[in-house]
Write a structure and sequence with these properties.
Oligomer: single chain
Distance between the termini: 102 Å
Number of helices: 3
Structural class: mainly alpha
Helix content: over 70%
């Protein structure tokens, strides 16, 4: 009877060990795939996108100025002129 109980528990332990080994292999594979992945976006990519957005915005604003031949944003114009006319007093 002791031998049957011992065999029963040994089979259960082997099953648990196999399940842990399989889970470990799965997690190891997922971690390896995650670390090897090149789907992350780098700083250079982000910088280029921001630069392109600024250039396109400046071109659009310049086009509006050329099209309407007047000041599009008068408040900004006044503030910039105020900065250049600042006399420190």
């Amino acid at each position: 009877m002791k031998e049957k109980i011992k065999n029963f528990f040994m089979k259960k332990v082997e099953g648990v060990k196999n399940a842990i080994a399989m889970k470990e292999a799965e997690l190891k594979g997922r971690a390896h795939a995650t670390l090897d992945g090149t789907v992350a976006e780098g700083y250079v990519d982000t910088g280029v996108k921001i630069l392109i957005a600024v250039v396109i915005g400046a071109l659009l604003l310049g086009g509006l100025y050329a099209l309407f031949n007047t000041t599009i944003m008068p408040t900004v114009r006044e503030k910039v002129q105020g900065l250049f006319n600042y006399n420190g007093g």
